[in-house]
Batch of 3 targets.
Target 1
Amino acid sequence: MNRIALMILAALMLTSCGASRKVVQKPVQTYVQPGSDLLKAPDTIRVWAMGESTSEMTARKKAVVSANSELAMVLNSVVASTIESYSLESSHNDDVVTREYFSSKTSMAAKAALVGARVVYDHWEPINAQGMYTCYVVLEVTADDFMKTLMESMADAQSKKVKVDEELLREHLLKSINAGK
């Protein structure tokens, strides 16, 4: 019995020690997602998202919700870096009240900017024979729109005794927006 097992094992080892097989390399296929070329725009925050569903409208809603959450994360990051760099360079960088004021006003402006975000690309396509659809969406918030919303929210800065250098703030906002591109 042991002999038979050894002979089978030896036969398997001898057959597997043959010449190496040639590996056929397949060409690499690339696919550019629709709308992804629109992401790089100067002085603009743009995000791309997609949604899939059996309904075109549901696929679009999923894509817009996903894009809104991505835009919220990007805006929070931009706002945080803008506040930090502005407060370090401005003359009142030690004032805790000023930092808290800017923090609250910029977060309010970010929420308002999310509501006012524009859809710059909206495309759907069927993905298979079972009736599934994919929707691609690109949302944007421009620096001008965000600054306008921010300055409107800071209309009470004089009464709070907070000095706002609009040009310096705009400069830091643009740096923060363009830093990720």
Target 2
Amino acid sequence: MVRGLQAVLLVLLLAGCGAGDSGGGEEKPLPPASTATPADDLSAKAEQIAGYCRARFHDEFAGVGIDPANPRRLVVYRLSSARLDHAVRHRFGDVALLFRTATATERDLDELTRRVLADRRLWQQQGIDVQGVGPDFVRGTVLVQTPDVDLARSKLPARYGKRIEVQEADIVPAPGSGSG
């Protein structure tokens, strides 16, 4: 009996949720439920911080990412800079932040990445199929992916310096993609 009464009350409560005057004489639909997750919000904050740092601290900023040890915290990589740390904490005080010293700026790594990409044809002529290139701001290097690892490790650092890290390519270019 109590269970039946609870069910009737629940039905009456649910039926009454839309009843009553909403002020305009018509029911307004509920706004759609947000599909954003805390990770989405943190990723959006990371993008905002990156944009802010690129605009104001391009000579110090290296990158920003979600802390793998604490997925509710962002890690900002930069050359040692109390000025950047203070500005970011002040502007983005609602986010848990950790600052780490980087060995290269985003700008420097991007420039080196562009140099390697511009030389792809040269490396192809020397038997090195460069299949992927990109900056790694955490380690302060540019990753170069190739199936020709040993040859690339013997030649690329001589041209670009110690910031080049060569690793086995784990991708296969599609036919006609221009890498073969």
Target 3
Amino acid sequence: MALPLTVTAVALFYLSAIPIQIAFFLRYDGALRFGAGFSAFEPRRARRRARTASPKKQSAAKKWTPKHPIALLRAALKAFFSLSRHLKLLSLTMDGTVGLPDAAATALICGAANSLDAALFAVTRRARVSLRPDFAAASAHAELSGMISLRVGHIMLAALLGAWEYGLGRLKTWKSIPSKAS
């Protein structure tokens, strides 16, 4: 009996240490496009999945309404803030071109973006901003891409913490309802 429990504990220990890379991008070139992808161990696969993800059409499904929205919101926020402490920023890149009818305004915006790049690079070497001027046309193109990493164990702990918080919220709601004497 002790051997299966030990094997399960060891397997969960090693499973909780697996890093998950989550890649995302947001692109604007006349239309807004978003993509996300994740992969265990390999960041290139996550980037590839994020770039090739196509938007799926949403079917006319039944609308879900939570029965206890306050308890659910409190639990989700608790889990999110617990998980946000363990997020690791691997890269964040903003790349684009901007062109305004006024050439001076275009130059000021690009200069501000370049100074923001220098400030971010001094703080963290993982964030880059590149904004090029386009004096010939009044157009805009931008792409924000990045990658974060976290471990499966942190996701499991955040889910348990959120479930615990949701259960406590439901229990408080249940205790606050006065009972009817029959």
